[in-house]
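Milestone 3.1: sequence recovery, worked example.
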C-alpha cells in the first residue's frame, strides 16, 4: 500500500520517465528489476528525495507480498535519507522563491513521514497517528502552495479513511469523534486522486477498490479491480482483489478463471509461502465446484487437505478442512460416486 504514496515525482521529464518505468516494474511485482532501476536513479540524482522514498516503498511492497520483515531497517534508513533530502529541497525552494519546487518538497517530506506511519501502524495504530500528524501537515502545505498537485489527495485520503477505522480504544482522540464525516472525506479524497492524480492514480484505484469492498460497495469495486488486472496481468495482489469481488458478486465462472491463474502464479513465484498456495487452491476448489467442474474440484479439495495436514491445527484451518470435505463429498455425489446433497 505504501508504494502508492510514493509514486510521485518532480517536473523533471527524465526523472519522471525513469520513475514511471520503475513504478511499472513494481506494479507488476518484478521487484529485482524495479530496485535495480531505482538504484540507478539514486546514483544519477543523489540529491533528489524521490528515489530514496520510492525504493523504500518498493521494499515495503516486497515485504508485504512475501510476508517478511527482512529489509525493514533498510526501509527506515531510506525514508530518513529521503526526509533529509526533502528538507534541503524545501530550504532551497524557499530561498529561490520556486513555489512549484517548494510544493514538491512538502509532498516528499509528507510522503516520507507517512510511509513510516503506515508501516508502524500495522502493529501500533496509536503511535502511527502521532507520526502521521506531521505528514498531514506537510501534505496540506503542499496543496496550499500548489493546489494542482492532485497526487497529495491520495495519502490524505488514506489518512482520513484510516482515522475513521481506528479501534474503539482510541475513540477518545478528539479528531476521530465524527467518524462518518471523516470516512466520507477520505473516500472523496481517494476518488479525486484516482480521477485527477498522475503518479498515484493506479494505486489510488487499488486503495479505492479495497475501501469500496470494506464499505460493502462490491459493484463499485469490481470494475476497478478488473481494470487493474487487465493492465497488470502479472500482479498477484490485484488478482486476489478481483477474485474476492467476483466471489462476493456470485460471478463464479470468472472467479474460477481468476483463482486458477492465482494458483499458477503462487506456485511459480511463492512456493515457499504455503499459506498463499493454500488460499488460492481453497478458493479454486470452491469455484470449480460452483461451475460444475467436479473432478477438478475434488482434486483441488484433496490438495488443500494435504496442505492442511502439514499446518497448525487452528480454528480457521479446521473450518477450511470441513469446507473442503463438504466440497469433495458433494462433488463425488454429483458424479454418482457416493451420497451427498
Amino acid at each position: 500500500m505504501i508504494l502508492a504514496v510514493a509514486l510521485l515525482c518532480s517536473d523533471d521529464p527524465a526523472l519522471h520517465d525513469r520513475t514511471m518505468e520503475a513504478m511499472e516494474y513494481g506494479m507488476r511485482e518484478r521487484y529485482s528489476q524495479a530496485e535495480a532501476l531505482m538504484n540507478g536513479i539514486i546514483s544519477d540524482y543523489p540529491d533528489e528525495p524521490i528515489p530514496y522514498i520510492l525504493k523504500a516503498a518498493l521494499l515495503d511492497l516486497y515485504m508485504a507480498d512475501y510476508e517478511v520483515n527482512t529489509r525493514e531497517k533498510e526501509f527506515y534508513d531510506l525514508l530518513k535519507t529521503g526526509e533529509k533530502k526533502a528538507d534541503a529541497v524545501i530550504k532551497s525552494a524557499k530561498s529561490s522563491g520556486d513555489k512549484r519546487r517548494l510544493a514538491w518538497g512538502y509532498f516528499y517530506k509528507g510522503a516520507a513521514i507517512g510511509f513510516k506511519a503506515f508501516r508502524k501502524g500495522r502493529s501500533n495504530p496509536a503511535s502511527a497517528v502521532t507520526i502521521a500528524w506531521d505528514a498531514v501537515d506537510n501534505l496540506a502545505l503542499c496543496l496550499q502552495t500548489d493546489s494542482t498537485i492532485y497526487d497529495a489527495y491520495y495519502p490524505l485520503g488514506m489518512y482520513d479513511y484510516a482515522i475513521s477505522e481506528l479501534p474503539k480504544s482510541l475513540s477518545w482522540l478528539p479528531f476521530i469523534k465524527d467518524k462518518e464525516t471523516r470516512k466520507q472525506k477520505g473516500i472523496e479524497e481517494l476518488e479525486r486522486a484516482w480521477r485527477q492524480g498522475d503518479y498515484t492514480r493506479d494505486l489510488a484505484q487499488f486503495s479505492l477498490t479495497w475501501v469500496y469492498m470494506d464499505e460493502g460497495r462490491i459493484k463499485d469495486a469490481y470494475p476497478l479491480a478488473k481494470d487493474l488486472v487487465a493492465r497488470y496481468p502479472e500482479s498477484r495482489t490485484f488478482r486476489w482483489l478481483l477474485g474476492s469481488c467476483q466471489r462476493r458478486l456470485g460471478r463464479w465462472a470468472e472467479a474460477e478463471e481468476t483463482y486458477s491463474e492465482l494458483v499458477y502464479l503462487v506456485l511459480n513465484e511463492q512456493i515457499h509461502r504455503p499459506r498463499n498456495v493454500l488460499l488460492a487452491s481453497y478458493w479454486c476448489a470452491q469455484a470449480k465446484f460452483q461451475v460444475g467442474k467436479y473432478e477438478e474440484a475434488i482434486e483441488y479439495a484433496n490438495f488443500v487437505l494435504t496442505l492442511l495436514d502439514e499446518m497448525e491445527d487452528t480454528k480457521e484451518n479446521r473450518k477450511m478442512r470441513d469446507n473442503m470435505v463438504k466440497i469433495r463429498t458433494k462433488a463425488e455425489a454429483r458424479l454418482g460416486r457416493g451420497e451427498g446433497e
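Residues 252-341 form one domain. The CA atoms of residues 23 and 255 lie 28 Å apart.
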